[in-house]
């Protein structure tokens, strides 16, 4: 069962996050043994870094390679099994079994015998699965054609297989046969990126830390000794107390994970990603976060109805497993005024990533909440080491309030970027963050007090240290008002070009044009002042004129990872040099809300939805052509829109991204 779950997760992650392609090319040939006996050969050429599994793997392991030979005329029979080369045999740690795989290439042979004089070509099919060090692509199949040579062609075909390797003629003929018979699988979209798995891990870690932050609030922290004391006193033995506390902690996890599952089920794994660019979604969540922040700062408390809390509490009195579960539910309800804003923020932020991110987020959050209850129940002596409840709990709550307030303006910025209103440009956004974090620093230094704060005669060393960190961060933000890149928060503020001084303070657009020359028709200065086209046709026309390959950049105004790539990777001198000099950049914003002319609107063949806006058009192009809908997504193409290399998704590794650009440019020059 464990092995099956691992396989399902591998396939699910590959199909959900990936932009998939097939790194295997198959070619076929036939060798004649006698008048009616032939050997069918299928050779796999495997892209570097990937491996193909063998045919004979135990059940419960990775999907094995399997061949099927179609015989509608019943005119031949298989002699023995399909054979394969030696390959590599290892004990796989994931599947916990001995497996065989191939790298670079693999040859499979099958001997057949025709049972009648009706000798014809043979059709076959191969089903296979490939993996690299971090991902597995879903099993796929490929049609194979085995051309049985006639007497006239036999000599050339036999030469291909048996002539000596140093024969120039044989090499030439072999190349011709391969070119004729090879069925290349053209990669249309890139393999699942390690960044995607890192994205889920990041969500889990952030959610886990947020759970600990919620734990240190006035609504939750005092519940730890009370709950642990209840279990130790009500249980007849110490073992029973520990068991009940463990069940209590597990129930907390179930409740929050169930919440994440419900959010995923309601919105769907794919539609959640679209929420992050929806104007109304961002505006509503901006308002919600401001309300949450005001609550944390002490303006009011957000509470669920008392009737609901009382009803759940009455169920908790029944005892047993059901009673323990309702005790956990009661904790979630009673502590909602503190955990609700954090849970809400996590759910929406995770939801914008799509897929199982909300479930992963709630898993991390709930584990952090549940862990102390279980540990302190197992080791009640540790309770003596816990700090006493007091004013410091409200300080934690206030700090969270300031952080919620800063985050709220990220969502308002998303809406402004999508609508291109230029109300919340980079300088305004940074000014707000400087004010928020500056006030947080003053609060930590005791210069500001809020409604529920206890009298502060002195500040602790820990509070002073944290205050200095916040003050340092505030000072770090200030140069951003004059054009500093602020790589530490890349992706959060609006991009450099979305500002009052897109070229930095004191550099006008005119002086910039003198440096770069006049802009081509339909182009503008994009990220890092790179000449950028937003129209596919105009960009392609310019690329043909200057004789350069095209870098298609499927991006979004509200895409955080897109901004990170532009500010952290594209700013690197060697990458920037390539983008400025060696390619023509076409940035297609999938969340551009400008409506298409009525005559250009259409119904998508892929999704069946009406394409009304420019963003819809580019999104439909990405889905239809590359079977991908995540951003950022980069494709290097020639002047006929043919891929020059495997497309790339979010990849913050500068060297890898630079190497990817170079590979596409080299393919263009061949």
Give your account of this protein's structure.
The strands form five sheets. The protein has a five-stranded mixed sheet, with helices on both faces. A hairpin with a 4-residue loop joins β6 (88-92) and β7 (97-103). It is α+β, with helices and mostly antiparallel strands and 670 residues long. It has four domains: 22-181, Thiol:disulfide interchange protein DsbD, N-terminal domain (Immunoglobulin-like); 200-380, no CATH class; 425-505, no CATH class; 522-669, Glutaredoxin. The protein has helices at residues 2-17, 151-162, 168-181, 194-215, 223-234, 238-267, 271-275, 279-297, 306-316, 320-334, 336-351, 357-378, 391-419, 426-444, 461-477, 509-516, 536-546, 560-569, 573-581, 614-626, 654-669; strands spanning 24-32, 37-46, 51-53, 66-69, 76-84, 88-92, 97-103, 105-114, 122-128, 130-131, 140-146, 523-525, 531-533, 550-555, 584-589, 602-603, 610-611, 633-637. The protein has 21 helices and 18 strands. The protein is globular and about 100 Å long.
């Amino acid at each position: 069962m464990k092995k099956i779950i691992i396989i399902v997760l591998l396939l699910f992650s590959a199909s959900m996050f990936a932009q998939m392609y097939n790194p295997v090319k198959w070619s076929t040939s036939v060798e004649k043994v006698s008048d009616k006996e032939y050997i069918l050969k299928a050779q796999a050429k495997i892209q570097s870094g990937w491996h193909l599994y063998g045919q004979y793997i135990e059940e419960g392991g990775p999907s094995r390679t399997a061949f099927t030979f179609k015989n509608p005329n019943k005119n031949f029979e298989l002699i023995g099994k399909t054979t394969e080369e030696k390959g590599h045999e290892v004990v796989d740690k994931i599947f916990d079994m001995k497996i065989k795989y191939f790298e670079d290439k693999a040859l499979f042979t099958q001997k057949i015998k025709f049972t009648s004089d009706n000798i014809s070509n043979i059709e076959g099919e191969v089903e296979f699965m490939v993996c690299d060090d971090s991902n597995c692509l879903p099993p796929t199949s490929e049609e194979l054609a085995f051309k049985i040579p006639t007497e006239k062609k036999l000599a050339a075909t036999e030469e291909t297989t048996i002539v000596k390797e140093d024969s120039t003629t044989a090499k030439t003929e072999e190349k011709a046969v391969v070119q004729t018979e090879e069925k290349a699988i053209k990669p249309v979209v890139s393999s699942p990126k390690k960044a995607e798995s890192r994205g889920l891990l990041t969500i889990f870690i952030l959610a886990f830390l947020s759970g600990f932050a919620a734990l240190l609030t006035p609504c939750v922290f005092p519940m730890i000794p009370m709950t642990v004391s209840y279990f130790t006193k009500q249980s007849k033995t110490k073992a029973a107390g520990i068991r009940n506390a463990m069940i209590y902690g597990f129930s907390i996890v179930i409740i929050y994970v169930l919440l994440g599952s419900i959010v995923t089920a309601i919105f769907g794994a794919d539609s959640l990603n679209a929420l992050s660019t929806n104007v109304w979604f961002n505006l509503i969540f901006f308002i919600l976060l401001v309300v949450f922040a005001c609550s944390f700062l002490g303006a009011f408390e957000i509470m669920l109805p008392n009737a609901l809390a009382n009803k759940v509490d009455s169920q908790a009195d029944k005892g047993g497993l059901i009673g323990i579960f309702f005790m956990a539910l009661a904790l979630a309800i009673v502590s909602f005024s503190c955990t609700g804003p954090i849970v809400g923020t996590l759910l929406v932020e995770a939801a914008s990533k799509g897929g199982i991110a909300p479930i992963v987020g709630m898993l991390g959050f709930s584990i952090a909440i549940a862990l102390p209850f279980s540990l302190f129940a197992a080791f009640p002596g540790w309770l003596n080491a816990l700090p006493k409840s007091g004013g410091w709990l409200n300080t934690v709550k206030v700090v969270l309030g300031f952080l919620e307030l800063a985050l709220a303006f990220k969502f308002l910025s998303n809406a402004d970027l999508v609508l291109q209103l230029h109300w919340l440009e980079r300088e305004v956004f940074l000014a707000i963050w400087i004010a928020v974090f500056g006030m947080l620093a003053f609060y930590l230094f005791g210069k500001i007090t809020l409604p529920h704060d206890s009298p502060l005669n002195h500040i602790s060393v820990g509070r002073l240290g944290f205050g200095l960190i916040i003050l340092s961060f505030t000072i770090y933000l200030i140069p951003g008002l004059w054009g500093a890149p602020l790589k530490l928060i890349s992706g959060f503020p609006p991009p450099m070009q979305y500002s009052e001084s897109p070229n930095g303070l004191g550099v006008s657009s005119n002086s910039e044009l003198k440096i770069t020359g006049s802009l081509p028709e339909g182009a503008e200065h994009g990220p890092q002042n790179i000449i950028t086209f937003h129209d596919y046709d105009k960009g392609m026309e310019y690329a043909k004129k200057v004789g350069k390959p095209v870098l298609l950049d499927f991006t979004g105004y509200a895409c955080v990872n897109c901004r990170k790539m532009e500010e952290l990777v594209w700013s690197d001198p060697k990458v920037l040099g390539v983008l400025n000099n060696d390619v023509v950049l076409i940035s297609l914003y999938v969340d551009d809300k400008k409506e298409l002319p009525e005559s250009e609107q259409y119904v998508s063949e892929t999704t069946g939805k009406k394409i009304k806006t420019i963003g819809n058009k580019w999104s439909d192009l990405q889905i239809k052509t590359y079977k991908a809908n995540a951003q950022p997504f980069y494709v290097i193409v020639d002047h006929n829109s043919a891929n020059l290399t495997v497309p790339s998704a979010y990849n913050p590794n500068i060297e890898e991204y630079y190497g990817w650009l170079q590979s596409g440019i080299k393919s263009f020059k061949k």
